[in-house]
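Trying the structure run again after the queue cleared.
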Amino acid sequence: MRKIRNLVVGTALAGSLAAGLAATGTAAQAATTDASTTAGVTATAQAQRSGGSFGPIYSGFGRGEDRGHRSYVKGFWGVKGGRHYVDFDLFDRDRDREYSWADFYYHDDEGWHFYKRYKTFGHYHTRLFFNDRDIDGFRFRVGEGSTRDYDWSGWKNYGF
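Done. Tokens:
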């Protein structure tokens, strides 16, 4: 008796699914077309807005400091309107009246070039624009100090 009941229920279920699919066949085709068109537009928009985020990247730390007192940089980079940019925030966390530093370099066909050094006692935010279309990447490092020893982090490299 159980086998017959399962067979009848299975047949009824299969029949209702087939009827439902037949009725919504054209709607499913339209939805598939809309989804593929939307996916194409999204892929194009992402290709035009290439970029990414980074950080936080922390400075090194010297004697008497712990990891909680390190300076750091975080932000994002990308291409907008044919121009490369880096948008970042530099933070000094320990408030010890020593500057937090960030050195930025860019890369083109001729190698690495110094762009600018930034410093702050607290928080600094800026957006860098690179007008040269031959630029293919940037790098930076973060440090803290008031003498020649800035407790630099390692270099962090990113490509456009």
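Helices lie at 2-23, 25-48. Worth checking whether this holds up in the mutant runs.
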